[in-house]
Automatic annotation (TrEMBL):
InterPro entries in the cross-refs: S-Me-THD-like_C (IPR048350), S-Me-THD_C_sf (IPR024071), S-Me-THD_N (IPR010318), S-Me-THD_N_sf (IPR027479)
Domain S-Me-THD-like C-terminal: 172-357
Ranges where the S-Me-THD N-terminal domain occurs: 14-169
Protein's name in the database: DUF917 domain-containing protein
Length: 362
């Protein structure tokens, strides 16, 4: 990551790498990063690079603002933010807590939500925290690490591109998910939000550290990877190749603030004769072959363009695409008993238990 005067920052040179890496680690979710990347590009050109700081560089009582977009990724492609949402969220938190926000943090490291906070940090003149609360993307608001530690997602601030703003203070995080999801649906299917605001000291426990800088490293590896993107990716993170193929069918529907569906992928090359089924809810949930799971949440399942190594978001899957199906081990916190209860296969309605992709394909 670029260093200016001893400080790491996101600038015009490495912003594309952040976008690429965030999409690979998203597991198909987080929304198409192109719009967020263009918005961040404009902000950096106008205001200069955005400083990136480790969480432990902040004072314990500094207020951290985790933020991003919420809703159906298919809607986000056309219903774009106007850029001012971060200011609205920040001002709402500053009124509530009676003190300034010290830093912006992506609440998930995936797709547009990996890069849109860059825009909001630039316009606010604030640093970005090199961490997030997922280490990937997940579809629901209780699927963030603070929930595992009994920490409240409220107050949550939701605002749309018209600056219509609602603040939620709920009895628990399950109710937060229900009420925010209904609100976002009423706002047209997508909106921007702040979740799980807390001090830097409190964030030390649930934060997944270093995810922003890792996404930049991943993007840089892909950009220089040439004809072997899998080898480039493996330089940054352990990756398991599940198969190569062509998308021969895609079923996708948008309802209740989610994109749900599946894709059939017919094996090519060494995988000719195999048939894979990918199922998703905003994010990729499971890859099946002959009814058997090859990989499941919370491991990160990603489709890569065969030629470029770029990750594909679920709303971008198209008939005829040549892809590589790969998986990365989940951040350790998600494979705990509490983590699997929140984001394991059974949390999404599957009647089988999680087995790590490393163990399945050892």
């Amino acid at each position: 990551m670029t260093s200016r005067g001893g400080a790491m920052c996101i600038d015009l040179d490495n912003l594309p790498a952040l976008s690429l890496g965030a999409t690979v680690f998203a597991g198909g979710g987080g929304g198409d990063p192109r719009i967020g990347e263009l918005m961040a590009l404009k902000a950096i050109r106008e205001l200069g690079p955005v400083e990136v700081k480790p969480l432990d560089a902040f004072d314990d009582d500094d207020l951290i603002m985790p933020c991003g977009m919420i809703g159906a990724p298919t809607v986000m492609v056309e219903k774009i933010p106007n850029g001012g949402e971060g200011r609205v969220i920040r001002e709402a938190y500053e009124r509530h807590f009676g003190r300034p926000v010290a830093a912006v943090m992506p609440f998930e490291m995936g797709g547009i939500n990996g890069v849109l906070p860059v825009t909001w940090a630039a316009y606010a003149g604030l640093p970005l925290v090199d961490a997030d609360f997922m280490g990937r993307a997940f579809p629901e608001l209780q699927m963030l690490t603070p929930h595992l530690y009994g920490m409240a997602g409220s107050p949550s601030v939701i605002t749309d591109e018209r600056m219509q703003t609602v603040v939620f203070d709920t009895m628990d995080n399950i109710w937060l998910e229900k009420l925010v999801r209904n609100c976002v649906a009423s706002l047209g299917g997508s909106a921007c939000g702040g979740l799980y605001p807390m001090t830097a000291g409190a964030a030390q426990r649930p934060a997944i550290i270093g995810t922003l800088s890792r996404a930049v490293r991943m993007g840089e590896a892909i950009r220089r990877g040439g004809e072997d993107p899998i080898a480039a990716i493996s330089e940054v993170a352990p990756v398991t190749r599940l198969g190569q193929g062509k998308v021969v069918d895609i079923e996708r529907r948008t309802s209740g603030g989610f994109v749900r569906g599946s894709a059939l992928i017919e094996g090519l090359g060494a995988d000719k004769g195999r048939l894979f089924r990918l199922e998703f809810q905003n994010e990729n949930l499971v890859v099946l072959e002959d009814g058997e799971a090859l990989a499941t949440v919370p491991d990160i399942i990603t489709l890569l363009d065969t030629h470029t190594g770029h990750g594909l978001v679920t709303e971008g899957i198209r008939y005829g695409q040549r892809i590589e199906i790969v998986a990365f081990p989940a951040p350790e916190v998600w494979t705990s008993k509490e983590g699997l209860a929140a984001v394991g296969p059974r949390a999404f309605g599957y009647d089988f238990d999680f087995v790590s992709v490393v163990d399945r394909h050892a």
